[in-house]
Amino acid sequence: MRPTKDEYYLMIAEQVKNRGTCLRARIGAIIVRDEQIVATGYLGSPRQTKDCLERNECLRDKLNIPHGQRYELCRSVHAEQNCILNAARAGVSILNGDMYIYAENQKGEKTDGLPCFICKKMIINAGLKRVICSTKEGKMKIFNVEDWTRDWQEKDIVDDQQQYGKDQNK
């Protein structure tokens, strides 16, 4: 059976995650604009720095930091951030594009590929239109970025119900 375009692009993001260097999660992201993939990114350390695979430890695990918290102590750059940065490095516009995010935990189990608050802010400012995320049930969840903006205008960022890591902190 032929996948829909959203399914197809999410499958590509799933493959991108395999380049990641994080021990805690495997996340891949791609940006599609005008039906073309214009950028990819995975969860991994900054270029030319020593990553968690090389160190054989996750600093946030070592410090018992729950998922979705204290990202400033993480050695990695999020897949969404790397995707946006890679587009900028290549001089490619992502305005009105769609981002696809696929996520698994360290055991290889599907998790909700929701962007964190930092990534959501970057996605909003980058001018992306939609974000399509994998879910732990093996489905996809589609967000319109303008809805995030409207929600945060009416409430506040901390009231956001779609938070990365909620499904993993048990």
Concise synopsis of the structure shown:
The chain is α+β, with helices and mostly antiparallel strands and 170 residues long.
Describe what you observe in this structure.
- The chain is an alpha+beta fold.
- 31% of the residues lie in helices and 20% in strands.
- It is built from six helices and five strands, in the order αββαααβαββα.
- It has a five-stranded mixed beta sheet with strand order 2-1-3-4-5.
- A hairpin with a 5-residue loop joins β4 and β5.
- The protein is globular, with a radius of gyration of 15 Å.
- The termini are far apart.
- The model has no long low-confidence stretch (mean pLDDT 90).
Number of helices: 6
How many beta-strand segments?
A: 5
Helix content: 25-40%
How is the largest sheet built, in terms of strand order? 2-1-3-4-5
- The quaternary structure here is single chain
What is the gyration radius calculated from CA atoms? 15 Å
Shape field: globular
Question: How much of the polypeptide forms β-strand, as a percent range?
Answer: 15-25%
Structural class comes to alpha+beta
**Biggest sheet overview:** 5 strands, mixed
Secondary-structure element order, as H and E? HEEHHHEHEEH
Low-confidence stretches: none
The whole-number mean of residue pLDDT values reads 90
Distance between the termini: 36 Å
